[in-house]
Hints:
The protein is built from ten helices and 13 strands. By secondary structure, the protein is an alpha/beta fold.
Amino acid sequence: xxxxxxxxxxxxxxxxxxxxxxxxxxxxxxxxxxxxxxxxxxxxxxxxxxxxxxxxxxxxxxxxxxxxxxxxxxxxxxxxxxxxxxxxxxxxxxxxxxxxxxxxxxxxxxxxxxxxxxxxxxxxxxxxxxxxxxxxxxxxxxxxxxxxxxxxxxxxxxxxxxxxxxxxxxxxxxxxxxxxxxxxxxxxxxxxxxxxxxxxxxxxxxxxxxxxxxxxxxxxxxxxxxxxxxxxxxxxxxxxxxxxxxxxxxxxxxxxxxxxxxxxxxxxxxxxxxxxxxxxxxxxxxxxxxxxxxxxxxxxxx
Length: 302
């Protein structure tokens, strides 16, 4: 089944060229199927790119998926046209009376700040509190994962000695968990962050469990035992070239940054990176949609 997105969303033309199965609202209403309603809080600066990356992964499902986007009211992004936000986005005030089957909270370029110092932290906490009653399952990515661990479970983060950037191998340690069904015992995932959550506190928390391990990157997948919250510490949604673009951007800023680990073939920045995490991304998102959202959400919210 397709993913249902507006006809004029810029991501549509990119995904259509990739032969991704898409549908517009007019066609969807002619099918007697109850779609899954997914809400995406997009905190990334390049919103159009993130839209495409997430919609691509949500598309690989037999379920019909309808997506709403929201942005923060308390902070206005400087990297996306206001016309784009006006046409394709809402705010929390617009949707807070609704219920959603699933939600995604993205990363954000604010990890150098304490949570309470983030200009929109109060708004984020209001949204995360709302998800406890109005959303079946929430997928949190990178900073979004750290924010969820802090807000819901009181787990802090700390600065890393140096930014972690690159492709790292992970080993599944909870192979019977539905979220990793079909994923290889060893898989690769992109990471790009300057902070780490307190993994020892996560491991000792009675309501959480870690699904994998990595010697150099720490765990990639963390889940709550009630299946309400999934935390992804990296960026499985990234395109093959995203880390390269981040690296060149940081160099242009004059930052003392290392080349992304195990990323450029032969460690040569002139060699085009290869996507080695695509299949895991598709599987992870389809498992979440099926087992944590579709199988658990009510047919009708009361």
